[in-house]
Specification:
By secondary structure, this protein is of the alpha+beta class. A hairpin with a 2-residue loop joins strand 6 and strand 7 (about 140-145). The chain is globular. The two termini are about 25 Å apart. It is about 35% helix and about 25% strand. The chain is built from 8 helices and 10 strands. It has a single domain (about 10-260), classed as Phosphatase 2c, domain 1 (4-Layer Sandwich). It has helices at about 45-70, 80-105, 150-160, 165-170, 205-210, 215-225, 230-240, 265-270, and strands spanning about 10-15, 25-30, 35-40, 110-120, 125-130, 135-140, 140-145, 190-195, 200-205, 250-255.
């Protein structure tokens, strides 16, 4: 397993906000693995925090196990990097665990969670998400949203029924069209992106982007570049200052050095050892 802790710096925090009496968000990260995940739970009583907690625990465990014997950059016989396979498997297992718990424990019935996760490998990042938790990238001072919300509002925007500006004022912000654990199966949306030194990636729950405009988020990230813990704290502080109507969670990943795979020779050796392409 490749250790990415010298190439990536990660920091994050979760806060209940000013209105909610408990926190249904959860997050987890491991810079050595190049993995980060954030979840925003939903459900009656405290079931939302149960769902998000299960998602984080299951996904961290699955990624660690999946990368213990095969590097994320290794391609399968379809030419798909192992990073994608591991992320898909982690979401599948999280969904199964949450759905199974909801079915067996009446107090957890109907619980689920949105989530967003990143797995870095070979100067790339694979991003997976379900629901309206988001991933942004700050590059050269420009903030780009890398995920597209699975939400009723996003569908209205896409169909031209409302504008993005009108969407910010809508009362239907919490209506997601896809979530982990609600049904026996769920489809995560996955995309890969090339990574550059200096990139800053933000994972957040909607408690941040519902409170702050993208321009304000970009301003904080740019001003506090290189000071991840301060940037995390400032974003949470500003979300609460803007009303803090929801739990707010922020996870930042800074790319400090390149982290290319170990090259074609390594791929060949890995294949001979059973860790590369399937020749069947």
């Amino acid at each position: 397993m490749v250790d990415l802790s010298r190439s990536l710096r990660m920091d994050g925090a979760s806060d209940p906000g000013l209105i909610r009496d408990h926190n249904e968000d959860a997050l987890g990260f491991d810079a050595a693995l190049g993995f980060a995940v954030l979840a925003d739970g939903m459900g009656g009583y405290n079931a939302g925090e149960v769902a998000s907690g299960i998602a984080i625990e299951m996904m961290l465990h699955t990624v660690r196990e999946g990368l213990a014997t095969r590097d994320a950059a290794v391609l399968d016989r379809r030419g798909v990097p192992h990073a994608r396979t591991v992320l898909e498997e982690s979401v599948f297992l999280a969904n199964s665990a949450i759905h199974g718990t909801a079915q067996s424990q009446p107090q957890c019935a109907g619980m689920g969670t949105t989530l967003v996760a990143t797995l870095f490998f070979d100067d790339q990042v694979m991003v997976a998400h379900v629901g309206d938790s988001r991933c942004y990238r700050l590059r050269d001072g420009v903030l780009a949203q890398l995920t597209r919300d699975h939400s009723f509002l996003q569908e209205q925007i896409d169909s031209g029924l409302i504008s993005p500006e009108e969407a910010r004022l809508s009362l239907n912000k919490n209506l997601v069209t896809r979530a982990v654990g609600i049904d026996p199966a769920v489809e995560a949306e996955l995309h890969g992106y090339a990574v550059q030194v200096g990139d800053l990636y933000l994972l957040c729950s909607d408690g941040l982007n519902d409170m702050l405009e993208d321009a304000e988020i970009a301003e904080v990230l740019d001003d506090l570049r290189g000071h991840l813990s301060l940037a995390v704290a400032r974003l949470v502080e500003r979300a609460n200052a803007a009303g803090g109507r929801d739990n707010v969670s922020v996870l930042l990943i800074e790319v400090k050095r390149p982290f290319p795979a170990r090259g074609a020779l390594w791929q060949k050796v890995s294949s001979l050892l059973g860790g590369g392409r399937d020749k069947r």
